[in-house]
Design brief:
13 strands; Rossmann fold; alpha/beta; three-stranded antiparallel sheet; eight-stranded mixed sheet; 11 helices
């Protein structure tokens, strides 16, 4: 497997570093003597596209004639992409940051700070890099973006069994669908995206996705953080958490089984701290602890993966839920 990894997330991102380490472990492990003889060894080529985004983002969606010759940094990035593609690739992985409550924008961490990138800008930049190479031959594309497949109604359960039901989310409102709906009209492409935050297992190299339970607990944690106001540090400092944390760290193995005890400790704290901001700090600390305790067991492989396909005859985009059973969960004419 020869992978081209287009990094729009940013420099030295922990998630990217883990992903690349995992990918370089996963695919070479699958190589056989025959596959290496016929196709060559598996490779992962990284191109830091984020380095040119600061220059080109003002030209995207503007049809600015000044960009016809590109910029020095974009031209350098484009040359790297061309070199990798000319050598032959089997899959492109496109990495960008995402949030559960934004289906219009992702984000990139540049040296100057974090900036947004819309699905339209991402499409335009991607097309500038790959051009018309895949009008005939098909492309496999992975959108490496946390919550990329999550719908606008993000508070609805995206558990596999709920997708495609009347009470389920409208997956055609997701960032991934909107991005793919532009791409599929220009090239033959099958794309995957995830409904939760995406990570990679250090040992196996396989991708993992947050369960719905973890997603909702993270959303709840974020809501409780907002209740702390602008000075989070001062709010947290107004409460003595020593006994609560002592209970947490004294456990031989901190696990979900400890939560009822910690819940009791949090209730005792609230009885001795009557100020609203103090009680908000206690609620946040407990929710943050809950997220930390369930994060590993509730981050799963073979979970939350969506596959986007375009049917040229009916001009319809199909969305398939990959796990636990591969099934069609949404479709829309475009």
């Amino acid at each position: 497997m020869k992978i081209l990894f287009l990094n729009l997330a940013g420099e030295k991102e922990t998630a990217n570093e883990t992903a690349l380490k995992a990918l370089r472990k996963k695919y070479p492990a699958k190589d056989t003597f025959l596959s290496k003889l016929v196709y060559g060894p598996s490779t992962v080529t990284v191109v830091d596209v984020w380095r040119c985004y600061g220059e080109v983002r003002h030209f995207l969606s503007s049809e600015n004639p000044d960009f016809q010759t590109g910029t020095p940094e974009f031209n350098r990035i484009k040359q790297q992409v061309d070199t990798a593609m000319n050598a032959g690739i089997d899959k492109i992985m496109l990495s960008v940051h995402g949030n559960y409550d934004d289906v219009t924008h992702g984000s990139c961490k540049l040296l100057s700070g974090t900036v947004k990138i819309s699905y339209l800008q991402l499409y335009e930049l991607f097309m500038m890099l790959v051009e018309d190479r895949y009008k005939a031959s098909p492309l496999k594309l992975t959108l490496v973006m946390c919550y990329g497949g999550r719908a606008r109604d993000y508070l609805k359960s995206h558990a596999p069994e709920n997708l495609g039901t009347r009470s389920g989310p409208d997956l055609t409102t997701s960032f991934a669908f909107q991005f793919y709906s532009l791409l599929c009209k220009q090239m033959k492409v099958t794309m995957t995206a995830r409904t939760g935050a995406l990570s990679f297992d250090d040992i196996s190299g396989h991708s993992k996705v947050e369960s719905e339970r973890l997603v909702f607990d993270i959303i709840e944690r974020d809501l409780r953080r907002k209740a702390l106001g602008n000075d989070e540090e001062a709010a947290m400092g107004s409460v003595d958490f020593s006994e609560y944390l002592e209970e947490l760290f004294s456990a031989a193995q901190a696990s979900e089984e400890l939560l009822p005890t910690l819940e009791s400790k949090a209730m005792q704290l609230k009885q001795t701290h009557q100020q609203p901001l103090q009680q908000a700090a206690i609620d946040f600390q407990h929710q943050q602890t809950k997220v930390n305790l369930i994060k590993d067991p509730e981050t799963k492989s073979k979970y939350g993966k969506l596959v986007f396909k375009y049917d040229e005859k009916s001009r319809t985009i199909q969305i398939w839920s990959k796990y636990p059973l591969n099934r069609l969960v949404a479709q829309k004419s475009v």
